[in-house]
Structures are given as structure tokens and as C-alpha cells.
């Protein structure tokens, strides 16, 4: 599955939301993708098209223009039966460090993060 977005919206530690880490984006057709995690929780929450699901594990690969999200086969229902989402983004290079920090906070101990 593919999604195209202008940029990835991130917050590595939202103090107003109990230090939740959040990555979000909207597709050109109105789709919404979001990953969130509170620091005291073991599971990552994925929201696809406004439907939230909790995940036991996932792999996320970030490059300068792509965010690849791979779900375990048992979690594919979180994205309508698909276990892979490739998000093409145009996030500014100067903002990628914050995207990386956010993904590390979300995935620490609950998934795999790869910087490509």
C-alpha cells in the first residue's frame, strides 16, 4: 500500500499529552496515518484512516524520501489487511533528525527502527 504526503508531522515527547511520542501524516486523498506511544506503555498504537489499533511489534525504515512501515502478519488488520505501507514524503532534511528521534521513542523496546 502507498501513501504520498508533503511532510511527516512529529512530536518526540508531547508534554501536554503525558509525554506521548507521535508521528502523523495525511495522504493526498485524505487518508490519515499515525503512530503513537506513551513512554510507560509496551504497545504502539497505529491509526489508519481514523481507526486505531495496538501493535505488538513492527519495523519502520526511514529514508530521506520514504517511510516504510512493516507490520507482523497478525497485525495486518490494522491497515485493512495490508502488512506494508510505503509513505513517500517531502519532509525537509533539517526536520529529519526530529522524525528519527520520534520514531526511536515510539519503537524503543516495541519494534525495530532502521535509518536507510
What descriptors fit this protein?
10 strands; 116 residues; 5-stranded mixed β-sheet
Number of domains: 1
Largest sheet: 5 strands, mixed
How many DSSP E strands?
Answer: 10
Structural class: mainly beta
Low-confidence stretches: none
Distance between the termini: 19 Å
From N to C, what is the helix and strand string? EEEEEEEEEHE
Topology (SSEs and partners):
Blueprint: E1 2-4, E2 9-14, E3 20-26, E4 32-37, E5 44-48, E6 51-55, E7 58-62, E8 66-71, E9 84-88, H1 96-107, E10 112-115
Parallel strand pairs: 1-9, 7-10
Antiparallel strand pairs: 2-3, 3-4, 4-5, 5-6, 7-8, 8-9
How would you briefly describe this protein structure?
By secondary structure, the protein is mainly beta. The protein has one helix at 96-107, and strands at 2-4, 9-14, 20-26, 32-37, 44-48, 51-55, 58-62, 66-71, 84-88, 112-115. The model has no long low-confidence stretch (mean pLDDT 94).
What features would you describe in this structure?
The protein has one helix at 96-107, and strands at residues 2-4, 9-14, 20-26, 32-37, 44-48, 51-55, 58-62, 66-71, 84-88, 112-115. The protein has 116 residues and is mostly beta strands. The chain is built from 1 helix and 10 strands, in the order βββββββββαβ. It has one domain (2-115). The strands form 2 sheets. A 5-stranded mixed beta sheet has the order 1-9-8-7-10, with helices on one face. A 5-stranded antiparallel beta sheet has the order 2-3-4-5-6. The mean pLDDT is 94.
Amino acid at each position: 500500500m502507498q501513501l504520498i504526503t508533503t511532510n511527516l508531522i512529529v512530536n518526540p515527547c508531547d508534554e501536554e499529552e503525558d509525554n506521548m511520542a507521535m508521528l502523523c501524516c495525511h495522504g493526498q486523498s485524505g487518508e490519515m496515518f499515525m503512530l503513537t506511544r506513551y513512554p510507560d506503555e509496551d504497545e504502539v498504537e497505529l491509526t489508519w484512516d481514523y481507526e486505531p489499533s495496538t501493535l505488538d511489534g513492527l519495523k519502520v525504515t526511514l529514508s530521506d524520501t520514504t517511510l516504510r512501515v512493516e507490520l507482523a502478519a497478525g497485525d495486518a488488520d490494522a491497515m485493512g489487511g495490508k502488512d506494508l505501507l510505503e509513505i513517500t514524503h517531502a519532509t525537509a532534511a533539517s526536520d529529519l533528525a526530529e522524525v528519527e528521534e520520534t520514531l526511536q521513542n515510539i519503537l524503543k523496546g516495541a519494534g525495530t527502527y532502521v535509518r536507510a
